[in-house]
Amino acid sequence: MRLTDFRCYAALDLELDPTPVALYGANGAGKTNLLEALSFLVPGRGLRSAGAEGVARKDASGPAEAWAVFAEMETRDGEVRLGVGARNGGRRETRIDGEPAPQGELARLVPMIWLTPAQDRLFAGPRADRLKFFDRLVYAADPAHAEAATAYDKVRTRRQRLLDEGQADPAWLNALESEMAGHGVAMAAARLDALIRLQGEIDARPEGAFPQADLALDGAVEADLADGLDAGAAEDRFAAALRDGRRRDGAAGRTLTRGPHRTELVARHRDKDQAAGDCSTGEQKALILTLALAQARALARQGGVAPLLLFDEACAHLDAPRREGLAREILATGSQAWLTGVERILFEPFAERVQYFEVDAARVERSA
Ligand SMILES: Nc1ncnc2c1ncn2[C@@H]1O[C@H](COP(=O)(O)OP(=O)(O)OP(=O)(O)O)[C@@H](O)[C@H]1O
Ligand SMILES: [Mg+2]
């Protein structure tokens, strides 16, 4: 892995083997920045949602002209050289084996799942964040889901703008709504499919270190599909709901019509028979890990390639038995997990099966 002018790193060159990576060091040392750099190797705005325009290294003379993240990876297509970067605050560019490539191709090559401390209150926080987290799990298994979701949001924004202006041509709205319905049903179907696999993977591991969870998706289109409506009929129904909702959506200035943008991920702690949002901080963290690890196992099974796991501060809030469980479960997935923590001792349960790096003021040194 090589970084150029990314966040606090002017230049970094890391040689790694495929085992998990433990990064330890003081606050502000540069641990999360490393995970964030990796997160740019898949489509999206990275694990801090900063976007390509927000990550160039800054010093007293201002931001660097260009930043880049480069990695050589073992993927399902064999060894691949991936490069991502941006120049002059512009759009990000992607290269695969030195050739310009669309971002979507990266998602297919590098399944990735990340967790950040910002997600610690995911189950008690806003609905949209939960859905985003779940959608990311779906993307890792099904990159086409990301494309459908992006397309859906684009058309939804266009329709809403027309309704806001209040003088849209109904034929034009019909066309947009039928496009929305097409992407929306594809999204809902991908989510349901992922949910079934995920729940199956969770149920298959009752003895795991993390609590069992019961998951459901509460969404209008998801419900239609789960009730057995075929995709065509579900599209017609959703398009009709959008047509009926025009006046209301226009008056509200947002898309109140129930569609995949308003779906709720419902999670329950099975043993406690409690909504995830009512669980303690540590219990919620454990439930999030349940989901992420189950998805990692599902992906390894599905594509034969374990995803990269970027677990920022995953050990914070976990007691010693859960930290041991985390090490066990990560090692069982065969993933190259990247873990951060302020102290090396947090990673003791990995024993010799992790590569340690000490991070100190943007210097990263391998340690025995
Ligand atoms: N664009 C940038 N240019 C230069 N430095 C930056 C930039 N963005 C962030 N930094 C700095 O990078 C440093 C490391 O941040 P990072 O979040 O990686 O630390 P960390 O090791 O994860 O710390 P913590 O344990 O507190 O989470 C911070 O001091 C931050 O101010
Ligand atoms: Mg950090």
Automatic annotation (TrEMBL):
Residues 17-360 form the AAA+ ATPase domain. Pfam families: SMC_N. InterPro entries: AAA+_ATPase, DNA-binding_RecF, P-loop_NTPase, RecF/RecN/SMC_N, RecF_2. It is found in: Cytoplasm. GO terms for biological process: DNA replication; DNA synthesis involved in DNA repair; double-strand break repair; SOS response. GO terms for molecular function: ATP binding; single-stranded DNA binding. ATP binds at G25, A26, N27, G28, A29, G30, K31, T32. The RecF protein is involved in DNA metabolism; it is required for DNA replication and normal SOS inducibility. RecF binds preferentially to single-stranded, linear DNA. It also seems to bind ATP. NCBIfam families: recf (TIGR00611). This is DNA replication and repair protein RecF. The gene is recF.
